[in-house]
Amino acid sequence: MNDQSTVIAAALGEVGVRLKRLRMQRSVTLTSLAAATGISKSTLSRLETGQRRPSLELLLPLAQAYHVPLDELVGAPEVGDPRIRLKPRNANGRTVIPLTRQPGGMQAWKIVIPTSKTEPALKSHEGYEWLYVLSGRMRLVLGDHDLVLGPGEVAEFDTFVPHWFGSTGDQQAEVLSVFGGQGERMHVRAKAAKQRNE
User: Fold this and answer.
1) Most buried residue, 10, 40, 149, 168, by most Cβ within 10 Å?
2) Distance (Å, whole) CA 98 – CA 90
3) What's the per-residue H, E or C state across 78-132?
4) How far apart are CA 183 and CA 160, in angstroms?
5) What is the DSSP letter of 151?
6) What is the DSSP secondary structure assignment for residue 41, as one 8-state letter?
7) Of residues 85 and 77, which shows the higher confidence score?
8) Can you tell me the distance from the alpha carbon of 153 to that of 182, in angstroms, rounded to the nearest whole number?
9) Mean pLDDT, range 103-110, rounded to an integer
10) Which residues are within 8 A (CB) of 156 and not within 5 positions of it... i.e. 6 or more apart?
11) What is the torsional sign of CA 40, 45, 48, 50?
């Protein structure tokens, strides 16, 4: 067996342990997991004990049921250079730099909006967007609102509302955009601790 085969066999050998740990951490029964994935209880049990070799057709529904990337189940070893090579592209005269690599789910971009007077062309579509102005000033037309946002200001909105964002025409703007295509919203979990001795 060559080195690569050994690495693959070792990764696959740990899948059952990961599956059982995930299920226990989430307090999920084999019965409810079988109902959610369409995989029989006996197959799920054999996967967890290592008696059944994991396959893509079994792991994909499990990854979906647990809402985790497939490589988290497999424990795929890190390969190659860990640096992300961001490839900017031009979209409607703007420079768009993707900050997420996985398709689907929440997507993030850095958008550089050049100084140019553009007539707003409002659009609406499924989703939810969160915009944070890093530098410059950005114009946002959202329904009946016509706003100008500066550095540190944030806007979030349902993209079913007709909207457009772009340049104010005065200066370039850099914007961080987080978009959920199925209407996913960002969840802020950190809150300031209350003073105990007030």
Assistant:
1) 149
2) 11
3) CCCCCCCCCCCEEECCEEEEECCCCCCCEEEEEEEECCCCCCCCCECCCCEEEEE
4) 9
5) T
6) H
7) 85
8) 24
9) 79
10) 128, 129, 130, 131, 185, 186
11) negative
